[in-house]
Amino acid sequence: PSSAMPVHILTPNAIEDQLATAEQLCLERGKRLTSIRRQLLEILIQAQRSLRAYELLDLAREFQPGAKPPPVYRALAFLTEECLIPRLSAVPVSTSCVAAGVGGSV
């Protein structure tokens, strides 16, 4: 038997459902899932793996040319603080945990 973890196929609807869950959690907490926060979260959901901050920055530049590190780091900090992504280590690496339905108990 293979020890590799299976990758789940995410349909556009499944991704939208996860983003809607994140949006709802933010609304319930009186927070905003801004455009960059939402886009970074979507990248993490689609990646289905951990990404380093600079990988995210490169991907963010595809939808937001000229994106700079400070806004990306602030967005990652927000997503971490709101338990929408876990902080995996001292190295700035992020992945999505919205898919697991966590959103508050990481």
Shape: globular
Structural class: mainly alpha
Strand order of the largest sheet: 1-2
Mean pLDDT: 79
Helix content estimate: 40-55%
Strand runs, count: 2
Q: Which stretches are poorly predicted, pLDDT < 50 over at least 5 residues?
A: 99-106
Indicate the radius of gyration in whole angstroms: 13 Å
Q: Number of DSSP helices?
A: 4
- End-to-end CA span: 30 Å
Encode the helix/strand succession as letters.
Answer: HHEHHE
Biggest sheet layout = 2 strands, antiparallel
Beta-strand portion reads under 5%
Q: How would you explain this protein's 3D organization?
A:
With 106 residues, the protein is mainly α. The chain is built from 4 helices and 2 strands; from the N terminus they run ααβααβ. It has helices at 12-28, 35-47, 53-63, 69-81, and strands at 51-52, 93-94. The protein has a two-stranded antiparallel sheet with strand order 1-2. α1 (12-28) crosses α2 (35-47), α2 (35-47) crosses α3 (53-63) and α2 packs across α4. The chain is globular and about 30 Å long.
